[in-house]
Amino acid sequence: MADFSTGLRISSSGLSAQRMRMNTISSNIANINTTRTPEGGPYRRKDVVFEAMPEARNFGELVTMPPNDNFQRVQVTDVNVDQDAVDLRYEPDHADANEQGYVAYPKINLMEEMANMIQATRSYEANVSAIQASKDMALGALEIGR
After folding, report:
1. Is 28 within a domain?
2. Which end of the chain is more exposed for a tag (fewer CB within 10 A), N or C?
3. Contact (CB, 8 A) for 106 and 31
4. End-to-end alpha-carbon separation of the chain, Å?
């Protein structure tokens, strides 16, 4: 059975996941021209992986939850690092050029990252709206109880 706090926990998990996604996208955009990192080589594009998880406060709730009553929350389970995506550009005077004069840049598409940022922002806003709607319903229920 869902209560007021279940909806808030589910929406807040979405807020946290989308915030991490926006931070990752921001990092990709900020490092679009980074040719050298502390790990060596150019910056590598990162992408978060989400997974739906059952909403239960403890293991007992998870075990006793009816199959059709499994509310879900979202969780970031991994951050994928794209190891193969580099863009070689011929710049023989660049400090990071190899013996042939090529510099390895991150293969990051700015338009794709901006579209992903807009999508993450819209998802974040949807979770904020869901929290606000839950709050409004709870306040409405309190008003009825007067």
Report:
1. yes
2. C
3. yes
4. 25
Q: Could you list the residue range(s) of the whole structural domain that residue 25 is in?
A: 4-83+109-144
How many distinct structural domains can be found in the chain?
1
Question: What tens-digit pLDDT sequence spans the chain (146 residues)?
Answer: 457 777 888 899 999 999 999 999 999 999 999 999 998 899 999 999 998 877 666 666 656 666 655 667 888 889 999 988 799 999 999 999 999 999 999 999 999 999 999 999 999 999 999 999 988 988 888 888 77
For the entire predicted model, the pTM comes to: 0.81
